[in-house]
Write a structure and sequence with these properties.
It contains three helices and eight strands. The protein is an alpha+beta fold. A hairpin with a 2-residue loop joins strand 5 and strand 6.
Length: 159
């Protein structure tokens, strides 16, 4: 079963691109990396830091938002440093030609995302009424159009 769950912080502002759905509704693709801490004891983490070894993994995520309300929701909430929980994400691979070489890409296409706001991760642009330390449930998104996934893979910000 291709069902992946992880949580971590966005490493930078999401890259976005717009599209139109088959029924002429606006849509937007949000692409971001999530830094997920490795399961290590404090001593293991200190040793890895001292040796210059990584203590986190970085997962590329693609989120499709369909409709104006969904787009606005994600534009307000997805920012660098925000802690997210990604569940039911589908791991996808693709490839393309670049300078005569075949390049392989991978990403997690998210269907369920929760944004966990903490006082340290709430962006300055967030509404003043947004309470700190809350968790927001998000309705699963409709499956993205197949051509949108292929087009999205060609413009990956981490390549």
């Amino acid at each position: 079963m291709n069902n992946n769950n992880f949580s971590g912080r966005l490493t930078k502002e999401p890259a976005t691109s717009s599209f139109t759905t088959a029924d002429s509704k606006p849509g937007k693709t949000f692409k971001f990396n999530v830094a997920v801490d490795r399961n290590m004891s404090k001593a293991q983490r200190e040793k890895a830091d001292a040796e210059g070894k990584p203590t986190a993994d970085f997962f590329p995520v693609t989120l499709f938002a369909n409709g104006e309300n969904s787009i606005k929701y994600w534009e307000e909430r997805l920012h660098k440093g925000v802690f997210v929980e990604v569940s039911n994400a589908k791991f996808t691979t693709d490839s393309y030609e670049k300078d005569g070489n075949k390049v392989f890409t991978y990403t997690f296409v998210a269907s369920d995302v929760k944004v966990v706001n903490t006082s340290a991760s709430t962006p300055a642009s967030a509404p003043a009424s947004a309470p700190a330390n809350t968790q927001e449930e998000v309705t699963p998104l409709v499956d993205p159009p197949a051509d949108a996934i292929s087009a999205a893979a060609e413009k990956l910000p981490w390549d």
